[in-house]
């Protein structure tokens, strides 16, 4: 069996501390945007001093702007089924929860998608519990096909990312054929003893979980998303393990993770365990900043588990993608405004997509609904090569502006449209290449005249 995570090495690295001058040197190295070694990450994670922390945040911010510009890519999760055979300690969908289960019919999938499209969403992340019969691969593929076929007015979902339990190469091939974007799977915790304590059922197999992404890659899926559930074990261990896993992917697959998600544990119905490793807000921002320096070309995702204030701060130090207006119960988008007990966990950002978009503009960022890369084959190492050569920016920025313009034309409230149009002008003015700017201005006009789905 391959050893992907070296727990002893990580535990030893966690004892490292850095002097002020060492921190300065590491940050300088980080700003070269070639990534950082594990020892440097461990030293940055040990920072307690507020002045050094501010320096870390400033470096992370520089890298974020240099690679991702002002863009924040928006998406929504779609919970399709909460049937699950596992008994994960932390999740309300665990078998011990006696509440009735719900699985969307394809008609209900269509209804949920129409609601999401009417908000302006173009990217979805599908979520399923693990259930070989209820959530069979045939069902998952039917859901994906239904989503892509649901087009109402100007609405359409152009990228479906998927988060299903670890499965076989054969099943991953089916997902690839159905046209998924990223396949995400979180290790939850890389710390084996904790993993054992937290899981019961097929997911309790640590090896199955940690090798699943390799199987997905073998099946041809080369945009892979990793993550841990922060709060299960020491966040410093988890960050170092994430970086070690990313380095392993790079070495073995020739492509690092497409995204890293940073979910933090949230209270949930029927979930009750001794939370010894809760991550404070400050440590949460610190770990995002360290990841930004460690793996600069990997997108980072924040969800509505986090409060708006934390999301805003996280955008500054490294987050490039965010969910908005999410519900975590199957069928939740047609439900009432309050959270229901059928959700997977409690959420802390209850704003509408329009409110989130407006907030992002006010902060000086640019909301993006872009889905171009995987539709034109810029995935895996093709994407990474462009990103590392600094070229992806030239495509992402115009595409972000075009998809944001579509949003403003088709879905925004008048107040958001006004702020958004101003924001588009500001971002346009920052484009130095006159030829590129001209093409973009022409395309923005074409959108005003009714054309849609324009990208480069
Ligand atoms: N069932 C699949 C699996 O376990 O891989 C799909 C993922 S589940 C629907 C999505 C993610 O939610 C989990 O991987 C876990 O990290 C996260 N999650 C579960 N319970 C949570 C909680 N109480 N607070 C925050 N995130 C939670
Ligand atoms: Fe099931 Fe996934 Fe929740 Fe575990 S985390 S109980 S596998 S839905």
User: Briefly, what CATH class of the largest domain?
Assistant: Alpha Beta
Could you say which structural class the secondary elements and strand pairing correspond to? alpha/beta
Q: Quote the average pLDDT.
A: 95
CATH-assigned fold name of the largest domain: TIM Barrel
Q: Helicity level, as a percent range?
A: 40-55%
CATH architecture of the largest domain: Alpha-Beta Barrel
| Poorly predicted runs | none
Gap between N and C termini, in Å? 44 Å
The total of helices stands at 18
Overall spatial form:
globular
Overall domain count: 2
Kindly report the name of the CATH homologous superfamily of the largest domain.
Answer: Aldolase class I
What hetero molecules are bound to the protein chains? S-adenosylmethionine, iron/sulfur cluster
Strand content: 5-15%
Topology order in helix (H) and strand (E) letters: HHHHEHEHEHEHHEHEHEHEHEHHHHH
How can the largest sheet be summarized?
A: 9 strands, parallel
Q: What is the rounded Rg?
A: 21 Å
Oligomer: single chain
Count of distinct strands:
9
């Amino acid at each position: 069996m391959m050893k992907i995570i070296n727990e002893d090495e990580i535990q030893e690295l966690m004892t490292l501390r850095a002097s002020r001058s060492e921190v300065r040197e590491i940050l300088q190295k980080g700003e070269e945007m070639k990534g950082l070694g594990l020892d440097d990450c461990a030293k940055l994670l040990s920072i307690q001093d507020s002045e050094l922390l501010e320096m870390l945040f400033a470096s992370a911010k520089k890298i974020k702007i240099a690679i991702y510009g002002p863009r924040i890519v928006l998406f929504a999760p779609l919970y399709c089924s909460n049937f699950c055979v596992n008994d994960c300690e932390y999740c309300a969908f665990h078998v011990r929860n006696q509440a009735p289960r719900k699985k969307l019919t394809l008609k209900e999938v269509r209804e949920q998608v129409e609601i999401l499209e009417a908000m302006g969403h173009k990217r979805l992340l599908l979520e399923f519990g693990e259930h070989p019969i209820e959530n069979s691969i045939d069902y998952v593929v039917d859901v994906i096909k239904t989503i892509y076929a649901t087009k109402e007015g100007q609405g359409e979902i152009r990228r479906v990312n998927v988060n299903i339990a670890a499965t076989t190469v054969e099943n991953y091939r089916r997902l690839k054929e159905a046209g998924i974007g990223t396949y995400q799977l979180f290790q939850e915790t890389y710390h084996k003893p904790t993993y054992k304590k937290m899981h019961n059922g097929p997911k309790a197999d640590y090896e199955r979980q940690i090798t699943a992404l390799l199987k997905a890659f073998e099946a041809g899926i080369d945009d892979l998303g990793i993550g841990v559930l922060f709060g299960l074990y020491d966040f410093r261990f988890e960050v170092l393990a994430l970086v070690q896993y990313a380095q392993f992917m790079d070495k073995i697959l020739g492509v690092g993770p497409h995204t890293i998600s940073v979910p933090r544990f949230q209270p949930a119905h029927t979930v009750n365990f001794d939370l010894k490793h809760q991550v404070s807000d400050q440590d949460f921002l610190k770990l995002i900043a360290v990841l930004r320096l460690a793996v600069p070309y990997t997108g980072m995702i924040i969800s509505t588990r986090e409060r708006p204030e934390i999301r805003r701060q996280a955008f500054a130090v490294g987050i490039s993608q965010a969910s908005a207006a999410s519900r975590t119960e199957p069928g939740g988008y047609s439900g009432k405004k309050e959270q229901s007990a059928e959700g997977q966990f409690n959420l802390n950002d209850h704003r509408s997509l329009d409110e989130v978009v407006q907030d992002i503009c006010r902060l000086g960022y640019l909301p993006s609904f872009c889905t171009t890369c995987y539709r034109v084959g810029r995935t895996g190492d093709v994407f990474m090569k462009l990103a590392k050569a600094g070229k992806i920016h030239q495509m992402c920025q115009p595409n972000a502006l075009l998809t944001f313009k579509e949003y403003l034309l088709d879905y925004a409230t008048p107040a958001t449209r006004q702020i958004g149009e101003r924001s588009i002008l500001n971002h346009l003015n920052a484009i130095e290449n006159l030829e590129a700017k001209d093409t973009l201005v022409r395309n923005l006009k074409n959108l005003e005249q009714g054309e849609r789905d324009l990208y480069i």
